[in-house]
Amino acid sequence: MSAVIEEHHDDHHDHKPTGIGRWLFSTNHKDIGTMYLCFSFLMLFIGGTMALVIRAELFQPGLQFVEPEFFNQMTTLHGLIMVFGVIMPAFVGLANWMVPMMIGAPDMALPRMNNWSFWLLPGAFGLLIASLVMSIMGMGSAPNFGWTFYAPLSTTYGPASTDFFIFSVHMMGISSIMGAINIIATIMNMRAPGMTYMKMPIFVWTWFITAYLLIAVMPVLAGAVTMMLTDRNFGTSFFDAAGGGDPVMFQHIFWFFGHPEVYIMILPAFGVISQIVPTFARKKIFGYSSMVYATSSIAFLSFIVWAHHMFTTGMPVAAELFFMYATMLIAVPTGVKVFNWVSTMWKGSMTFETPMLFAISFIIMFSIGGFTGLMLAVAPADFQYHDTYFVVAHFHYVLVNGALYSIFAAVYFWLPKWTGNMYDEKLGKLHFWISTISINLLFFPMHFVGLAGMPRRIPDYNMQFAEFNQWATVGAFIFGFSQLILLYNIIKTARGRSTEKATSQVWEGAEGLEWTLPSPAPFHSFTTPPTVK
Amino acid sequence: MRAAIRVAGFISLMLSSGQLLADYQLDMRPGVTSFSQGAYEIHTMVMWISVAIAVVVFGAMTYAIIYHRKSKGHKASSFDDNTTLEIVWTIIPFIILGFMAVPATKVLLEMEDTSNSDMSIKVTGYQWKWHYDYLGEDVSFFSNISTPDSLSLATSANVDRTAETYLLDVDNRMVIPVNKKVRMLFTANDVIHSWWIPDFGVKKDTIPGFINESWIKTDKPGVYRGQCTELCGTNHGFMPIVVEVKSEKDYMAWLAGKKAEAAEAAASAEKTWTMEEQMAHGEKVYATNCAACHQANGQGIPNVFPGLVGSPVAIGDIAKHIDVIINGVPGTAMQAFGGQLNDADIAALVTYERNAWGNDVGDMAQPADIKAAR
Q: Does a cis peptide bond (omega within 30 degrees of 0) precede residue A520?
């Protein structure tokens, strides 16, 4: 991106509303962004606790802590909370905070809809977590069919709480769709004069494309859960063979949503990395237009690969071949992006503050996840990997070592802009190193037990898998507790008692409209649009 | 930087300390069929190509991190584009993918060709066991995990966790002959399960209402174990698969033995059983088929699986009790066991449930009663 930007300082008459009303009725993109981020951090600890229950049970062979029925509820809710309650809302929070500032807009295009998009989420997750509370109280199981909720396990054989789950998913979906509409309307209509599409920051591009993916596939998810609802309660048989339906059709519909969904969870991450690496390398992003085209190719390809999740369902060979080839193709644009990040680093003048540590770590560990993804794409090999811990290792590498790390990077990168205070760099680095070592201890051994034959979603296993499971559990507990360091650092920075003040630009290599605003960014910014040359 | 070196170091430690970790499997098994070996070869190829690319890319990153840093005084260059390079590193990966796709296609086409088989076995997935039906042979049986105590927190410690076949042993193995192409047909009774033996390279989902196909042919006799690989409810982790590959002679002997067993079971349905015989046999049937949900102590799990201690069904009208077991309870997880258990088994089960855990109703059912109720 090359743009000569005029220095632009806003007025400092920040008329902020006060009290609980400020948050309940907010139409301000910064406050709503803050709420999304705080909500997702809370969900991270809740979903993380469930992961620790799982890993505690899997520490040794034998059942020590939970019944298999409860274990299935833990794996299900852990997945649902992390996907829909942590990764997605965190990226929406980052979008809310940064997209208007990056394009020189005063707020999102539809501020009231923005409020509702956020407040649907505590409702949706309150409902979902209520089903777990009821389960613990002995009133019947919470959802226990995996985050992928295949029929007929979730329809004919689903517990009563399944209908809570369906309602909850509907609310999350509406929140995402409205958020996506807002993003597209904002980016298309509210860019500052002179900011053409090919001058937008890459983070804005990746969110623009992600928003289209959301609008395309969240309604498909809504369709799937609605068909579940009618199969369960209104006598239909969409997924029941006895009534003329097809359980595999459920999988087709789910994964038509599900595959673009994982790109929804990674494209904003790519955008974050594309903002951070140039800043700390003091060098422009290499191949700006290729990055835009590569992201668009990934988004397009994401629609035609869904059945690679279904290689063992008994598809015709021709279909298996098509989905194998199409999936392997995604490696090409993804590789281009990785090469471009490395080329941005190459011959730069790098410093390694916490955001850069997380960003570099992302590039390495996301690539490892990408390689295992390529292995999984190869259908005959996939027959040995499918539904084993090899898959669990793959998706945790791309989602935790990948997407979550990019969120951590973004938080450290932008926290000074949000709060006006520099975070504690020593604590940031401590958080980084403890997290990185423990996260590899946690997820890398899963590749081995998966290859050795350990299936997914089992609470107990044969002795041959014990050693690596123990390492993973140790890694899990260290990783989980080290997130408290981040929590402490964020609170310390927000309070600003013993912190260094942040300048407008914050980072020496930072470029973009958002870095022309004071830190903390005023409650209302760019009420008069800047001009971009 | 040091992150890259740490990760690389970790990986090479894992890979190179093969002697230290000799007991711990790091890699997939090549297996004993042509396509388990084909899958293994492609897996190995893709993995090493990935490692090579990773070494190059992470190597470049490491170099840049060490030498292109501000603290070493390196000044940032200003290049931000190179179209030729972009084209080259788009085309080369594309070609590499082509190299991978060709062998992958060959193996996949071989795996999916079930023609010209020597025999067929129909596998049906149940919650939570497998059923094998040797088509044309009139031999069929259920295959349950051999340690039902494993299924519950309360009783898990009763089972020896250090056993080599812990959670991987069954009461009735599937047996096939060597060097014969065995066609497998897969379906399910309730939810989607998945049948997998890593050494055969065969994994197929078993889907209720549909039939999937695969095939096995191996020249290596032995015992091969696998597990269910599709979440299918509470005891998904407790429905192992054991296949024994025997010489043709031993297979024929086994088949004859199975037919004899079936005849014997039919005969036992004719006789009259005593209370002691029923309670002993019923306890076994209960442990294998019912304890998974209703628990060994008959208390069930509140609001998930009803308890049988003092329950209206277990202490009420015996005809109704028999009906619930034979026909299940539609709309609930209580399956129809009529097709899964024979008359003698159900009679013993009914007797056991009515008289165990303090129920002490005092009556009992005979196999003839069950036959009449069907």
A: yes
- Within 8 A of A61 by CB-CB distance, chain B residues are 161, 166-167
Instruction: Give residue-wise pLDDT tens across range A149-188.
Output: 999 999 999 999 999 999 999 999 999 999 999 999 999 9
Active-site residue, selected from the candidate residues A30, A55, A191, A337: A337
Other residues' Cβ atoms within 10 Å of the Cβ of residue A55: 20
Q: Is A407 helix (H, G, I), strand (E, B) or coil?
A: helix
Sign of CA pseudo-dihedral A441, A445, A447, A450: negative
- Per CB-CB distance under 8 Å, the chain A contacts of B237 are 68, 455, 457-461
Which residues does chain B have within 8 Å of residue A62's beta carbon, measured at their own beta carbons?
156-157, 159, 161
pLDDT > 70: percent of chain A: 97
pTM of this structure: 0.92
Rounded (5°) CA angle A302-A303-A305: 70
Q: Round to whole Å and give the CA distance between A87 and A404.
A: 7
Instruction: Give the minimum alpha-carbon distance from A41 to chain B in angstroms, rounded to a whole number.
Output: 25
pLDDT for B299-313, tens place per residue?
888 788 889 998 998
The partner residue sitting opposite A67, judged by closest CB among B24, B75, B152, is B152
Measure the CA–CA gap between A107 and B239, rounded to whole angstroms: 56
- pLDDT band with cut points at 50, 70 and 90 for residue A285: very high
Chain A contact probe: residue of B84, B190, B304, B329 with most A CBs at under 10 A: B304
Contacts of B124 in chain A (CB under 8 A): none
**Residue found under tokens 């005084």:** B73
Name the pLDDT band for B2 (thresholds 50, 70, 90): low
A377: closest CA of chain B, how far (Å): 10
Q: B263: which 2 tokens?
A: 């005849």
Task: Look at A329 and B97 and tell me if their CB atoms are within 8 Å.
Answer: yes
Dist. CA A436–CA B3, nearest whole Å: 8
Q: Do B39 and A66 touch (CB under 8 A)?
A: no
| ipTM score assigned to the predicted complex | 0.93
If DSSP codes are grouped into helix, strand and coil, which group holds residue A392? helix
In chain B, alpha helices (H): 2-16, 34-67, 83-111, 248-268, 275-289, 291-294, 312-315, 318-327, 343-355, 367-373
User: Is A191 noted as a catalytic residue in this protein?
Assistant: no
Judged by CB atoms closer than 8 Å, whether chains meet at A462 and B167 is answered as yes
A146 to chain B: nearest residue by CA? Answer: B231
Q: Exposed e or buried b for every residue in B260-290, given b needs 16+ CB within 10 A? A: eeeeeeeebbeeebeeeebbebbbebbbbbb
The helix (run of H) or strand (run of E) holding residue A45 is helix A29-57
Count of C-beta atoms within a 10 Å radius of residue A49: 14
For residue A455, the distance in angstroms to the closest alpha carbon of chain B comes to 6
Q: How far apart are CA A489 and CA A491, in angstroms?
A: 6
Amino acid letter, A87: I
Q: Note the pLDDT tens digit of each residue in B298-354.
A: 988 878 888 999 899 888 899 999 999 999 888 777 888 988 888 888 999 999 999
Detail the DSSP E strand segments found in A51-154: none
Q: List Cβ neighbours of A529 (8 Å cut-off, separation of 6 or more).
A: A104, A105, A106, A192, A193
CB contact set of B33 (below 8 Å; sequence gap of 6+): B199, B200, B201, B202, B216, B217, B218
Could you please report the per-residue DSSP string of B252-316?
HHHHHHHHHHHHHHHHHTTSPPPHHHHHHHHHHHHHHHTHHHH-TTS--BTTTB---TT-HHHHS
**Sign of the dihedral through C-alpha B343, B349, B352, B358:** negative
Please indicate whether, in this complex, the C-beta atoms of A286 and B207 are within 8 angstroms of each other: no
**pLDDT of amino acid A322:** 98
Q: How far is it, in rounded angstroms, from Cα B314 to Cα B335?
A: 16
Residue with token string 């209703």: B294
